[in-house]
Every structure is written in structure tokens, then in C-alpha cells.
Records
---
Amino acid sequence: MDLNYSCAVSTGRNRKRATFRQQGSVTRSQSETTIHCSPPHTTVTNLIWRFDHSQIILTKTDSQYTVSEEWKQHVKDVSESGSLTLQHFSSDQEGTYTCELADAVETKITNILVEINEGNSSNVEAIVGVVIAAIVVLASLVTLLVLWKNKKCCFS
């Protein structure tokens, strides 16, 4: 089941929007798998792929991709739209993959559970993932708002 959450924060001068999407699980059945981050026609400027919410797989700024040392053997390709193709997949790479797309106005975060064996993820795992990601998005927005208010207060 796909779940979508969106939050917008507006100030007198700025508007920021964050969208969180919990995508259904992807079951890997071949030696490689592709995880989609956004629709194929999307132009990606800033991208971060994470594994289990913390370990950075790769980053992209403008047109430069940087793959972390731990993931170089597994990352086969990254498409123009940000889709990640992994190879040499094992149970160590089973888990939650997070794609974060950002520009000056909007941040889109997508969580995808990747499993090796056939089967569905439990609802509890999905709910926990949604709650954690929602907390991260809200904390980021609150931090941005506080920083903006402090800047207005102190630099006016």
C-alpha cells in the first residue's frame, strides 16, 4: 500500500513543502533490482539515497553522482530520474531504501522496503517507517522555520 503525506510551511517571504511517500515493498527475484524514486520524466538536481534511514548510498548535486565506498560494489546505475539499480544483492541489502529529492522549494522523501524472498511486509513495519519519516520531515521543517525566524529577528 502506498501512503502519501505532505506538509507546507509558508512565511512572508518563503514557502517550503515536504512530501513523504511510503511505497509498497519491492521483492527482488533476480541478481539485480531497480528501485524507482520518482516518475521517469522527472529532472533530478539534488538526490540522496539512504539505506535503513541512515547509511548514505549515494548523493547527487547538479549532474555529479558520488557513491559511498561501502556501496560501490552494489550500485550498478542511477537513471536521470534518480532510479537506483543495484547488483550483487544479498540479505545484507534487504531493508528500507530512502530516496530524498530536493530543490529550493520542495523536498520529496520516498521509503521503499526491499525484500529478497516473496512475501509482504507487516503493517507494523510500514507504520513505524511512516512515523519515523514523518518525524524527520516535521523536525526539518520546524528547524527551518526557527532558523528563518532567528534570521528575521537578528539580521533585520
---
Amino acid sequence: MPDTPTPPASPILSLSGALRHAVAAAAPSVVAVHSHRARSSGFVWRPGLVVTADEALAEEGDVAVTAQGGRRLGATLVGRDPSTDVALLRIDDDALPAAALAPEPVAAGSLALALGSQDGAPLAALGLVALAGPAWRSMRGGEIDARIELDLALRRRAEGGLALDAAGQALGMTVFGPRRRVLVIPGATVARVAEKLLAHGRIPRGYLGLGLQPVRRDDGGAGLMVMSVEPGGPGAAAGLRQGDVVAAIDGEPVAGLQALQRALGPGSVGTPVRLTLRRAGEAVEAALTIGERPHP
């Protein structure tokens, strides 16, 4: 009898095997993160150090992580940066393997995996890179090195875990954006911010020492009314008064309080700016040097 030809390998089975291998290879670097009434994921950045999503981490209380296999480890907060959603933890084990964050760019339409942990078991989701764009600034003023959005269903417990490409390379950290879009904080951003948190425990933020309220000026333009001036702050040093209305900064009309907050990122500290004010109906100029927000 003639030999029965061997059926060709199923491309679906091959893809399934490749994805399974990618998850298995990265899973030892991913941990579950437990904080006060909050559950999320994180990944080993360096031996003994775990990166997780700041937004998913409770503001107070004890923190612990669960490694692959269910082993629970104590953790302490090294520092956190709400502007980039990066928080750094120190754990009681420096033997867990660190994730290698890939510097390669990604393209829209590429397959992507989100990998988190639920009590030490891998928690995976498959989707596509929906958007791959240039650097951007978060609503809180953080500088993010690339805009990467994933089209997949991310569970709340997987936030703070790894985003992987089809080859299993770690692209960065998965977080929720506005309207629960799944965003990736790229590896370059994670490394830059985590280095500063490790060295200083926080990321400096710009500070005006002013309590501001959005208002509509008499001429119809937007403005920010000074509701309070903190003694000894940059605003007080520049001579601002309660009731002043900030109309422009360095000649650019103010676009609102949120836009100003975004502009007060780490790079703004120490920068001199010129404020155009309306004071009792008169135009006034003030020179102000942006300070560093005091540590709470």
C-alpha cells in the first residue's frame, strides 16, 4: 500500500504553541501584587525590585506579592510616580528572574499578549496593537516615550503586568487609560522612571504654590484665578495676589487647569516663565520660577 502522506502542520496549532511558549517563558518574571483592598500584577525589573501600576496600588497599608507557584513575599514601596503610572517595590527575594524589556518599536496590527498573575498563576489575554504612535504626555504631565494601545480584554488583576509581542519580547507595562483603553507604558519609560525612583524615591514635579480656579475673563478668553497663595512658594516670590487672573504663560493663552498641570512635569522644575495677569481690570506682568513640589 502507498504511504499515507503526513498532513501539513496546522498553522493555528503552531500559533497556539508559540503563544503558550511565550507565556511560559515570561511567567516567572510576573507576580501578583496585593495592597489594601486592591489586586493587580507586576513584574521583576531587577533582582529584588518589582514594577507595578501606580494607579492600581493602594495609597496606604501593607504590600505583598505572590510569585509563580503561589509563594507569597513581603514587599515595601520604594517610590511611585502617578504621572507615568510607574511604582517600584522592593521584595524579599532577589532570585526571581527579571523581565528583559525590548527596545524595538512595535507596529499597529501586530499580535500582542498581556500577561498578569492571579495568585501566582499566569493570566493571559491575546489581541492586537491597535495604535503605535510617537511620544506623548499623560494628563498628569508624565513623558511617555511612545503611544501604544492594545485591542484586548485586560482583567483588572492583570493591570501592571507585561505586554509581550508575538515573539514573547516584553514591550512594557499594561495599564488602563481613559475609558478603560489598554495602554502600554514602554520599556524605555519604565526604565527611566524606575531608575529615578530607585535613586530618589520620587519624581520631581513642577510647583507654583498657587491655588487656581478656571474662570472666563471679561473678554471671553479662558483664565485661571488665583484663589490662594502659599507663603514662601514660587507664586508668593513672584508677587502674585489672591484674585489675580492668569491669562497667558510665556505669551501663550492658558488652555485650562488640566493643561497647566500637564506642563508642570519633571523638566519644568527651575524654569523661569512670564505670566500675563489681569489684576483689578489692569494688565500686569510677573516673572515666576517654577519650583519643585514639596514631598508630602
---
Amino acid sequence: MAAQLAKLPAVERLSSACIRILGGNPGKFTLQGTNTYLVGTGPRRILIDTGEGRPAWLDSLRSTLEQENASIESALISHWHHDHVGGIKDLLELSPSTQIFKHKPAQDQSPISDGQVFRTQGATLTAHYTPGHTDDHMTFVLAEEDAMFTADNVLGHGTAVFEDLTAYLQSLGKMKSLFTSRAYPGHGPVLEDGPAKIAEYIGHRRQREEQVLKTLRSTNGNGDKPWTVMEIVRIIYSEVPEELHPAAAGGIVQILGKLRDEGRVAHDAGDTWRLARSHSL
């Protein structure tokens, strides 16, 4: 997978009001590393996310602030995952006056609510509650560019994982209608047509649902055979390295859960799955 990823610099100006600073934590699931964004054009900026607390990120942030002759007024945290919140402690040591905002905040943090607006010179950010990847997930629309910081609901490479598929699909539909231009993702390069990528994500999730249903029907045509999650994964993700199958299994469980809630599949006591009888004919 790493060979397929575009090389991204540690620090890159993406527009007049947005500088991306990589978290210094490349990996199988973080891609080139967690994207953090310094937003605004004046002496007081807004930071989106903090990486996971790597010295390389802090060094990049410090040098960027010096070059920009700027400080960080506030930091907006997209969600609770460690690779987005792990640098908060280092940030506050560098900039003790920075106010940390997060939906479902921890102690000493301020809350972010759906529709809340954050302003600094050259940037107006509106927060939107978009759960799915996590239950506290927020995205931010930059009015001056009609662009969105999509965090981990939409990535610059590949597809995203999620905790709740139904909520995730609802959030993708909401996000698609909120902007018309770029997407600045939580990992990977900028997406020049963000809404088109979101539409692609929605289509991909629908396709995965159909693949699961097709697999459940595949043995004898009537869907009576019980399937384990990993048996389904091995069919659908046959071209994916087996080391990634456990991660894929989480998504399949979410799909099965959604289909069960819709009455389309049944979950047996032996932790196996099959088509619901009304859908197996």
C-alpha cells in the first residue's frame, strides 16, 4: 500500500488560508500521517487536529508558526482517536493560551456544537456534527473557499472505517450538500472535488452491501447457508492482503448489522449470518 501513496511534504501551503502539517506518523492506517491544518491569514490562527504527539510534528508546527509570525488562538479537534488528539499536550506546552475545542469535550476543553462558527482573519469555519467514523466526529466548512475539512469520514486515499454504518451514510449525505469545492481530509492529499468523492464513497458502501447479499446467496441460491464474518471477508476482499482482513471484518460486521436492522439478513446464535427468509426466495 505504501508504494501507491503520493509523497507529501512535512509542511505544505495548500491555499492562502490553509497550511497542512503532517503528524509525522505514517503507517498502514494513517497513510502518509495524520493531517493537521493551520488555518487563517493573520497573526492568530486556528489549528485543526494535533496528530498523535510526535516530535517531528511539533518541530514542523513550531517552525511554521515562526515563519508565519503567527500564534494559535484555538484548536478544533475532529474526533477522539489518538492520532488526532495525542498532540494536544505538546501543543499546550508550546502555546499555553490556545483554547481546545471538541465535541463531547474532555476536562479543560470547550465544546463544539453543530453549526458553531469559528472566525479568525482570513477564515470562517462552521462546524458540522457528522458521526459515523466515531460518535463525536466533526467536520468543518471553510466559507472563504467553499471547502470542507472532512477529517476521517473521507480520506485522500482509499476508503474510511466507521463505527456506525447507518450514521456514517447519513453523515456523508449531509456533508455532500454543505460545500462544492475542495476536501481537506484527515489523511492523504487534498481532494479537488470533495462532493464527487463523497458521492463515490456512498456508491462504494452501497456496492459493498450488494456484495455481502450476493455472497450470502452464492452457495445454493436460497441463502440458507450460514456464513461467518471472516468467510464473507475472504470472498469480498480476496485481492486484499490477509493481514488487512481483520480491519475489513469490522466494516462487514457494520454492513451485516445494518442489513439485519432492515430485516434483510439474520444473525444466528452460532455467530453466523444468513439471508432473512423473506429475502432468500
---
Amino acid sequence: MVSLTQHLLSIDKEAYEKATRHTFLQQVGSHTIAPQHLHSWIEQDRAYTNGYTKMMGLMISRVALFPDQREWGDNDPHYDSAHAQRIFKTLAFAVSNVFRECQMFTDLLSRTPYAGFPQGGMKPWTSRYVDFHQKVARTAGYDLGEALVVLWAMEKVFLEAWLYAKSIQENKTAGSSGEQDPVHVATMQELIQNWTLDEFKDFVDECGELVNALSTTDPLRLKSLEQVYRQTLALEVKFWDMAFTEVTDE
């Protein structure tokens, strides 16, 4: 039987390819990305972490750890206290980890190659992504299905994307970074390492297990889960695009 995550990964392979094999990742992996473009991406990802934490907060606030804490109207027939606590534990880890990453981004932006660039603030597509996350967290079913799919999808994309960048980095010819600023090169290496650690892979796998535990017997519900998955892929592509330029609604 095909799992839900396998099904989702099969429905829009072209968009998934774009989200995990983007030019930004190619340039980071080959250490050829310009400092201003990496600065732009880091700045937006730091801005995005604020929305991520709000999404996690909304999801956590909706988790009923025990049966007597379930909201009025919660008719999820698959509710299980132990599973709810598993979800809570995963979300708590996500919050802790994104706080660490927010601090990491602040440190990276203070480094010599990037500190001199003007601060651009949150770009429109970053804001749109943040709004999307919060909307999904608020409107997801009582099992948090749509929100769990979004969480898994964006983390799965990040894992595969940075593994792709790492594969390019590992195939680089020794010394081929040329005259690149050593701090800039070290920053690219640090970013690649951060999202290819075994701990991160384990987290992504756990998110996948939570998604696979969702019921998909209702075709309308399955359609809803598919929709937020597709939207996440589209937004991830736009997010990489923003490293180079402003993106439009095309």
C-alpha cells in the first residue's frame, strides 16, 4: 500500500524537482553564488522563521494532549492521546531548532561579506509564505492534517535541496573556489552542513510518519492535503528565486 507521503511526492514531480534542484542550490554547492545573493536569501529565511514559530505555536495550541482537553466539536475518530503527545513533541523540537537557526542567521549576517549590504526587510513572497503557514495552522482539521503536510513538505524539500547542494560540493575539484572570500565559502559550507545532519533527517522522517498516520479515506480530505502540498512546493520555488530578484505572481 502506498503511503500518503509517497502519494504526495508522486503528484507533482516537476514542481518538486524545481524546489530541490534550484539554481540557488547549484551555486551554493559549487561555491559560486555571489555574496549579495546569499545575503538576500539568509535575510529572508531569518524573516521567515518568525512565521514558522507562529505556525508551530498555533499548531501546539490546538494539540489536545489528553481526551478531556479536546475542543468542542472535535469529531476526529482517530484521536489518540499518545499520538497527540507525539505530535506535540515533534512540534516542540521544531520550535527549539528554528530558534537556534534564527540565532545562526543573525550570526551569519554579521559577517564581513554580508554586513555591508543594506537590510531589505521582509519581501512580499516571504510574507505570503508566512501568511499561508498561519492560515493552514488555523484552518487545518482537528488532526492538524493540512498543517502536518505543510510542515513535512517544507522540511522534506529543505533536506533534499541541501543534500543536492552537498553532492555538488563534494564533487568540486579541490581549490576550485578560486579567489572567493574564505568567510563566504565557510558560510556556504555551514549552511549545507546544517540541513544535512542526521538529526535533521530523523526529524523529517518523524514528520513523514505523522503525515502517514493521517486518514485518507475521505476523497475530499485527500484533495485538501494534496492542495496544501502543491502550494508549499510553489512557494518553496519562489523562496529560492528571491535570492536573486523580486518574484511576481506569474
